[in-house]
Design a protein that fits this description.
By secondary structure, the chain is mainly alpha-helical. The longest helix has 14 residues.
Amino acid sequence: MLTRGKNGQTYNISNNKFISIKKLVATICNLKKKSFNKNVELIKRDRIGKDLKYKLSNRKLKKQFKFKFKTSMNTGLKHVDDWIIDNRSILFKEKTWYVHKK
C-alpha cells in the first residue's frame, strides 16, 4: 500500500466477518488471561448517535492489491500484543489520552 496505494485513499484491512466490540474485547482479555467481567465496565446507556455496527469492506484492497489473508484474527492480535510488549519503552513516551471528536 505504501508504494502502490493512491494518496488520499483508505484501505480497510478486514476479513469481512462481523465481530462486536464486546466480543473483540473479550477475545483480547482471553489472550491476556484476564477476566472480562473483572476488567471491563459495560456502559448501560449508549452514547447519542451510536452506530449499530461498523462493518469494513476489504473489497478495494483485494481488487487493487490481490490481497489475501495469511493470519487469523487471534494470531494477529497475539502479534500485536507481542509488538506492544517489545516496544513498551517507546509507547510509554506517547500521549495516552483520547478526545472523541463531536
